[in-house]
Amino acid sequence: MMGPREQFGATVSQLIEHGERTALVWAEISGQFFAEAAARHPERVVNVGIREQALVSTAAGMALAGLRPIAHTFGSFLVERAFEQIKLDFGHQGVGGVLVGADGSFDIVAGGRTHESPGDMALMDTLNAQLHAPGTTREVDEILRAVVPGDGLHYVWVVGQTNTHSFPVGPRLHVVRRGGTGPGPIVIALGPVLDAVLDATEGTDASVLYASTIRPFDAAGLRAALGSSAIAEVVLVEPWLAGTSSRVVADALIDVPHRLLALGVGRAEHRHYGTPAEHIAAHGLDAAGLRASIDAFTAARAR
């Protein structure tokens, strides 16, 4: 079965073949997917080598020349290393493109801290970029087909962790599970954390919402899910820096008394290698860790 990164390679190859304005700039990684596209369209498919700042500036230059560039490498190198080039060459110059960061916060923990990028979503959010975190291979395909032919600056987060079920892409919170009759919180799962959230909230009164498009945030969907509740309790679960989306939740509930628990990758660095699953658990983002945090949050309300 094709994984998310393989799906990215297949979809982008098709978009290059059929889109005369579509270009790809990458920095060594994922080259195994693009040999045929590079041979057929060498003027639009460029490997700059391990030169991430040049990758971003080259892609922005293509945008200035009228192309629609896709820029791709590990998220840690694409965003956290080359952020100044993104800020100036895309943001300041006001040009659009699609940045695709691979492997996120946990995929290459064997590579150490240089290959972990929990802060990439927060950095891209400062530029008002549209943010996407597909939870399945189908969502990878549909998001790329929606944003590559479009306009604006997008960041697509492609990682190995996936959800079981796909949902329509776009800036919408999907109601995955409605809570029981008790005063349960609303739990928002952003990106590929939905399975863990569903396991963690099984048998509780929590309602579960899900989105693969993180920005724009579906404030109206959150308000609709709250209904007539006088006091809102919201748990935010995101597999990057904890609190990245707290601002948009607070904005959505600016006139509603609410309690917010923001779960995600913590500020503390885990200085061990291990496996992605061990890092997910270490940050409390596995089902057991989420359940413990949510139970403590709801228990605090009862006191």
Question: Would you give an account of this structure?
Answer:
- The chain has helices spanning 4-18, 35-40, 52-64, 75-81, 83-92, 120-125, 137-147, 194-201, 219-226, 246-252, 276-282, 287-302; strands at residues 22-26, 45-47, 68-74, 97-102, 130-132, 153-158, 174-177, 186-190, 207-211, 213-215, 232-241, 258-265.
- It is of the alpha/beta class.
- The strands form 2 sheets. The protein has a 7-stranded mixed beta sheet, sandwiched between helices. A 5-stranded mixed beta sheet has the order 7-9-8-11-12, with helices on both faces.
- It is globular and about 60 Å long.
- The chain starts with a helix and ends with a helix.
- The mean pLDDT is 95.
> What is the average per-residue confidence, as pLDDT, rounded to a whole number?
95
Number of helices: 12
Question: Main sheet: which strands, in order across?
Answer: 2-1-3-4-6-5-10
Structural class: alpha/beta
The rounded distance between the terminal residues' Cα atoms is 48 Å
β-strand amount: 15-25%
Give the SSE order as H and E letters: HEHEHEHHEHEHEEEHEEHEHEHH
**Helical residues, percent:** 25-40%
Radius of gyration: 19 Å
Shape: globular
DSSP, total strands:
12
Specify the biggest β-sheet.
7 strands, mixed
Low-confidence parts, pLDDT < 50 over ≥5 residues?
none
Key structural traits:
single chain, about 300 residues, alpha/beta, 7-stranded mixed β-sheet, 12 strands
Strand and helix layout:
Layout (H helix, E strand, L loop, with lengths): L3 H15 L3 E5 L8 H6 L4 E3 L4 H13 L3 E7 H7 L1 H10 L4 E6 L17 H6 L4 E3 L4 H11 L5 E6 L15 E4 L8 E5 L3 H8 L5 E5 L1 E3 L3 H8 L5 E10 L4 H7 L5 E8 L10 H7 L4 H16 L1
Parallel strand pairs: 1-2, 1-3, 3-4, 4-6, 5-6, 8-9, 8-11, 11-12
Antiparallel strand pairs: 5-10, 7-9
Helix pairs in contact: 1-7, 3-5, 8-12, 9-10
